[in-house]
Amino acid sequence: MGKAGFDAVHLCGVLKGFLTGAVNFHGLVIERHGVVVAQAYRRGKDESIYSLMSRQTDFDASRRHDLRSISKSVTSLLWGIAQGRNQTPSLDTPVLPLFPELGTLQSQGRQSITIAHLLGMSSGLAWNEPNRYNAGNDEGGLYWRSSQQRYLFDRPMLAQPGERFNYNGGGTAILARILADQTGMPLPEYARKNLFGPLGIDDWEWMNDLRGRPLAFSGLRMRPVDVARIGRMILRRGQWEGRQIVPAAWIDESLRPRLATGDGLRYGYQWWSGSVEAAGRRYEWHAGFGNGGQRLYMVPALDLVVVMTAGDYNSPLIGPACGRLLKNIVETAAE
Question: At how many degrees (to 10) do helices 70-84 and 248-255 cross?
Answer without folding.
Answer: 140
